[in-house]
Description:
This protein is α/β, with parallel strands linked by helices and 390 residues long.
Amino acid sequence: MDENIYYLAVNMSLGIGPLKKLSLINYFKNIKDIFTVSISELKHIIHSKYPVELIEQRESLLDRAEKEYQKLMNSDIHVINIHCEDYPENLLSIPDPPIVLYYKGTLINDDFNSIAVVGCREATPYGLRNSYKLGEGLANKGITVVSGLARGIDVEAHKGCLNNNGRTIAVLGCGINRYFPKEHQTIQDRIAITGCVISEFPLDTDPRRHHFPMRNRIICGLSVGVVVVEGSRDSGSLYTAQFALDYGRELYAYPGPAQSYHYSGTHDLIKKGARLVENTNDLINDLSLVLDLDLDKNLKKNNILKENKNISENFTKFSEKSIQFDTLNKEELIILKCLSDNEEKSIDYIVEESKLPVEKVLSNLTGLTIKQYCIQKGNYYTLNKIKELK
């Protein structure tokens, strides 16, 4: 039986939290021993006053984990446990890292250079604009943007990063095969192609209120610094700010209008010692001793070529007949037929017109852009009519 199945089973167990699960697997030399030792020994180690599945239902828990692992093997979802070499380095420095991560996309070593951007869901236009610009600016510096894909500040940071061809990580408060909120399906799939989507929760897990503080600790743990762009005193983003203080991360906050309810939380953070930040350069300058600022190397880590943004400037005219259709696959040809050389088409439009799954559209659009058949402008694409093909 694959070792990951045992990690999945422990992770699925209800009644104990991440810190207790970590202590449990560190107690035993081999994680398989958790499922073979006597019940009395397990009770002595866990000593929980609540019912624990790992004690009461070990065999059924292992069976569920094995079935889940088979699902993962037949999908584009990967799993990594805390003892794997590729487990994110930054997460290992917090006291309660998840023992298992489900992910779609790629985990890379350069994600050490990550900054979390968080804030409230019901954000003001001022806050949304600052979040987008911050995501855009960090992408331009080759810094990975980490956030929670929630409405408002979170998703704007992701968008700003993606639209500047940067790398971003979205941490979910539900199973990784769920979309929450549902209207962010397209951007979640796009992040999975160019960056990474992460969750510690088993497949099909619904989003629940208590999941989001757990998610926030991962957002903070993945990052060397946390920026709260906008948040009132009751904003969930303040959980992430508290984790930053607990985990020894650098904490930053954007200022807003005086006496503004929407900024009451961020102003409190500044009063308590969070550094005031107004732009990307403030962050980069302050974190220069923490970040690996070999920007040439950092910029190369992005999966999308930055020069594609203005690629049309380097081409000469070509006729439609000169397109080498034999070099394109069937899906690329379908997508090309949906594009126009004089009108920008959104990703949603292309998905609807092509009748292809969104992940297929996104991956093929990336390929067509790199091959210079189309031009990307944010979330919109046009047919490139000024390329000379040989």
